[in-house]
Design brief:
elongated; Tyrosine-type recombinase/integrase; DNA-binding; Integrase_recombinase_N; DNA integration
């Protein structure tokens, strides 16, 4: 059982009888906070990600600690109290302290924004159950100043749009980190390399397959580790593909965005075939009762043998590769960098944003646009440069014709 503290109130991890892990909020009396648990149960019923439940539980633990320190009742707070919550998140100062010196914020503004969003969502839920305090957090906006109108303005024209009253201004997010093709190649080569003389692979084909698959598909690490052999549809004269299927995993990894199909190259498919052949040579097909329903990425050198590979074990491999490739690849690279590299490469090659969004499994194309805004902006700048170059040629031709007339 793991505890994440937030003052004296805290977010507590729980293991349910079926083995599922979840989170709740404990008050100062070490008992679950009823209204918070009711909301978290609502998130579970909606099948939200366990990480989402964890994040919201942390936010509500901080909110409850703030209420306790200031002697506030959760169902009788005012808009001013929510503003005070933002100040408290930044400074941590209690009601008896009024500092006049500037201090370093306890949390990044992005973290504060996430915490505030969780709390407002919590009150939005309880507003539907008759708690009127949630009405103060949003206002209905009709129309906009200026000539710009959003795409779905005609839908919101009559009823208006809900707009948060309290918002946290965040600095523009930095561009997501990526790996160059050569850096990805070096990571794969260190894991396994084809020996032309011996006509066989040297090293760990499993490790190379993981990095090759992440780089080519843009999968999240959890989605890759959740793959089963029945999800891999190898090519038989047509294009091979993999299926991302939502299902529970004993290590807590899951398909975050539901089912989708991703086409892959023949090269990665052949590498998978070599890996399956090595698994069979190691006796996996005999040791596992249902090989098709077993996981693609499994333990090979440690017990329990052929059990699903843990994310922690993958990060142990990352640490080893960082040391081995020091100076050749970025020092702090993670498996998620392959996903960013894949998305960036697709966008730079001109693949439409909505296609990239579907391949990445984003629930909303706006997520793709927000995450990779720098890529789309670069493309726009290149288009502007090409347009300027083209029109410059027109002007030159026009000037030449005018000179000829003179």
């Amino acid at each position: 059982m793991t505890t994440v503290t937030g003052g004296m109130c805290r977010a507590q991890r729980l293991v349910l009888p079926g083995g599922e892990r979840t989170w709740t909020v404990l008050g100062r009396d070490c008992r679950p906070v009823a209204s918070a648990e009711e909301y978290l149960e609502y998130l579970r019923v909606q099948r939200c990600s366990p990480n989402t439940v964890k994040s919201y539980a942390r936010a509500l633990a901080l909110w409850w600690e703030y209420l306790e320190q200031y002697g506030l009742s959760w169902d009788a707070v005012t808009l001013e109290d929510f503003g005070g919550f933002l100040s408290w998140l930044r400074t941590g100062e209690g009601p008896q302290v009024a500092s006049i010196e500037p201090r370093t914020s306890r949390f990044a503004e992005s973290t504060i924004s996430v915490r505030l969003r969780a709390v407002t969502s919590y009150y939005g839920y309880h507003q539907l159950n008759g708690v009127e305090v949630g009405e103060d957090l949003h206002r209905i906006v009709h129309g906009r100043g200026g000539s710009y109108k959003p795409l779905l303005e005609h839908i919101a024209r009559r009823k208006g749009r809900r707009q948060a009253v309290i918002r946290v201004r965040q600095p523009r997010a930095a561009a997501p980190p990526t790996l160059t093709p050569r850096q990805i190649e070096r990571i794969c080569e260190v894991c396994a390399r084809w020996d032309d003389e011996a006509r066989e692979w040297r090293g760990s084909v499993r490790n190379r397959l993981l990095w090759s698959l992440l780089a080519e598909s843009g999968l999240r690490l959890g989605e890759a580790l959740g793959l089963q052999h029945r999800d891999w549809c190898t090519g038989r004269g047509d294009t091979p593909f993999i299926e991302i299927v939502p299902r529970e995993n004993e290590h807590g990894v899951r398909a975050k965005s539901g089912y989708r199909r991703l086409y892959i190259s023949d090269e990665v498919d052949r590498l998978y075939g070599e890996y399956v052949w090595q698994l069979c040579e190691a006796g996996a097909d005999l040791a596992i009762e249902d090989f098709d329903a077993s996981h693609v990425f499994v333990n090979l050198g440690r017990e329990p043998r052929f059990a699903p590979w843990k994310p922690d074990s993958v990060y142990d491999l990352v640490d080893r590769l960082r040391r081995e490739l020091a100076g050749q690849v970025p020092e702090g690279w993670t498996p998620h960098w392959f996903r960013h590299s894949h998305a960036t490469a697709l966008l730079l090659s001109g693949v439409p944003v909505h296609v990239v969004s579907r391949r990445l499994g984003h629930a909303d194309v706006q997520t793709t646009l927000s995450t990779y805004a720098h890529v789309t902006e670069d493309a726009e700048l290149r288009a502007v440069a090409d347009w300027a170059k083209l029109t410059a040629g027109w002007r030159a031709a026009q000037d030449a014709s005018q000179i000829g007339r003179c």
